[in-house]
Amino acid sequence: MNLSVQRLPHAKDLPLPSYATEGSAALDLLAAIDGDIVLKPSERAAIPCGIAVAFSDKYEGQVRARSGLALNHGITLLNAPGTIDSDYRGEIKAILVNLGQEPFTVKRGMKVAQIVFARIKHADIKEVEQLPVTVRGEGGFGSTGMGVDED
After folding, report:
1. Would you state the pLDDT for residue 81?
2. Which of 6, 73, 122, 128 could form an SS bridge with 52, CB 3.0 to 4.6 Å?
């Protein structure tokens, strides 16, 4: 898959997204902000990443949290993974939320999220009068149990 990346004016001094290692599945996204942004516990903010992208219509970009930020600081993404559609040409932003107990400072150039590109297939939609019956049926949230020592 080819990825065209447009570096936006407010990110001209920041590096393009890159894979941290040869085996990395995701490209790192950086904070393209002018000054520090402090996220207090329970606060959220859309952090601009300073890039717009173009890629094949058979793919989607999935913006995901960074595990180190989540584990060490309680920083994660709302709407995760966030979908970047192939026809979107606006700036990619990461919607960060602080689920930790301490304020967290986002600094310019900080790795705030990551993006994975996944192949997609459009569904052939067909209206039906009734769906096929399954054992699970309409059982939803928690209907298959939690596993060990259920009560």
Report:
1. 94
2. 6
